[in-house]
Amino acid sequence: MIITWLGHSSFRIEVEGATLLVDPWFTGNPVFPTAQRAAAIEGATHILLTHGHGDHTGDSLTIARELGIPIVGIYDLISWWQAKEGINGIGFNKGGTIDLNGAKVTMVNASHSSSVAGEGGQPIYAGHESGYIIAGDGHTIYLSGDTDVMADMGVFNALHAPDIGILSAGGHFTMDMKRAAYAAKTFFNFKTLIPCHYRTFPLLAQNADVLKAALPGVNVIEPQVMEPIKV
Description:
This protein is of the alpha/beta class. The protein contains 7 helices and 16 strands.
């Protein structure tokens, strides 16, 4: 399994026979080097979305058309885009598990909001926010999506026992480093933890020092954009 951070909450995850682009946001992403776009999307098989906000849906439609690959996510948004935008999609819902080229992907709950920008910038309902459990290559990832701490996380661990966590941790729009550390300590037994949704803007946390200090027994990796992490 290879996990590559693409800045903010965007990831490239190579697992089993799938290469997943999670929440791909390149255009306007201040920490993503545009010259590396081709390398970031090369060989992608699916686009996996956690919710509808622009810093997560980002370049999804463009990439889906460019590569001819499906967008995977909450049924409401995907079915609407299939009708409105003519893209290939795989829509499902929380508790459902799908097979993406051998990778087993389960949609789970998150605590956030979800909308896309409509005419005049007015928000349009885009289905519920979600996280994912991604299992394959002998590992299980809990990808939180944008969320706060939830008691649901205890259920996720009981059912899936993820050894890798990818947690939103920048604060303001999601849980911060302290709350992400609490979630990891209280509900999970991660061996590896990767923070995200931080360092993008001054408003968000700029480092994971608090997270590292709170989790001495966990390999907390501060990812670097386009530097693969092999697990």
